[in-house]
């Protein structure tokens, strides 16, 4: 009887996971801020209150994010918003916790841990989009620990993929590199996730100014990318993994070359990234990733002296329906480049950026 109940709940939770992922794609960030507090208040596996403590005995020092100055942690800003939009996530988390505490078969317990991990992975990206890196990191660690205890290597890889992006955007490139390298030991070299993790490590090395480290991981990512099968698997939330590898090889590399001061190579990769996004059906596009690719293109063009084109790329990026925290931060980078090199031409972009900033306030 218990097995039948757990099985029914697993099916419902799996459907809920798809619903949450779908809403995250189509509705934009503003509609999700309210409901995140419910899951943010749910203690992560291991009961740690600081992001570096989450995960219990299995967590090593590579998990530590380092201090709380990067944003509010669990129970902070995100916890203060009224429930709406993602309210069902609270019920999902509570239901998983109750099922894990009750009688179940080992297989059912593993499936519950995997579902809990996927929910935390989605919420890690959401908290990242909302500009709360410590909360995002805690969710990503929570995802890794659930996946690790369930023996789900691919989900471990997706967890560290999120960690790498969170750390990089919080100006912790060394953490991005260590997370990505750790994840590479858990994923198959024939999976697009291996491409992404090498690309994550390469851009972390580029952000550190380590050209040799960048080249090493980029070469490995490029080799794996060129040997991927024609058909690649999809994630449980329906996201196709092949395009995710392409985004990493184009957009991440564009950012890397900007940090390394190689602007013509940055321009080429940024243009490829924009095209890659434009070639995806609207229902499956990632507006925030596309906006960052356009901003990187603008930064490269500005440094190459193509001022009008740079401003046009930047304005197009800010027209995105999802101008999340990472997009605003990259837009500020373009604004700085324009203000430093072409101050008179920067006015249009700065005015548009100010409007976006008021909308996010």
Write the SSE topology.
Blueprint: H1 2-26, H2 33-40, H3 87-101, H4 106-129, H5 133-150, H6 153-169, H7 173-184, H8 192-207, H9 211-225, H10 241-259, H11 263-278, H12 287-303, H13 307-318, H14 325-341, H15 347-360
Helix pairs in contact: 1-3, 1-4, 2-3, 3-4, 4-5, 4-6, 5-6, 6-7, 6-8, 7-8, 8-9, 8-10, 9-10, 10-11, 10-12, 11-12, 12-13, 12-14, 13-14, 13-15, 14-15
Question: Mind explaining what this structure looks like?
Answer:
This protein is mainly alpha-helical and 361 residues long. It is built from 15 helices and no strands. It folds into 3 domains: 1-46 and 76-151; 152-257, Serine Threonine Protein Phosphatase 5, Tetratricopeptide repeat; 261-361. Helix 3 runs antiparallel to helix 4 (106-129) and helix 4 runs antiparallel to helix 5 (133-150). The chain starts with a helix and ends with a helix. The model is unreliable at 1-7, 21-62 and 67-86 (pLDDT under 50).
User: Any idea what the radius of gyration is?
Assistant: 20 Å
Work out the helicity level.
55-70%
Mean pLDDT, all residues: 78
Low-confidence segments: 1-7, 21-62, 67-86
Q: In the residues, how many domains can be counted?
A: 3
Q: How far apart, in Å, are the first and last alpha carbons?
A: 51 Å
Secondary-structure content class: mainly alpha
Number of strands: 0
Main sheet overview = none
Global outline: globular
Q: Work out the strand percent.
A: under 5%
Separate helix tally: 15
> Could you state the order of secondary-structure elements as H and E?
HHHHHHHHHHHHHHH
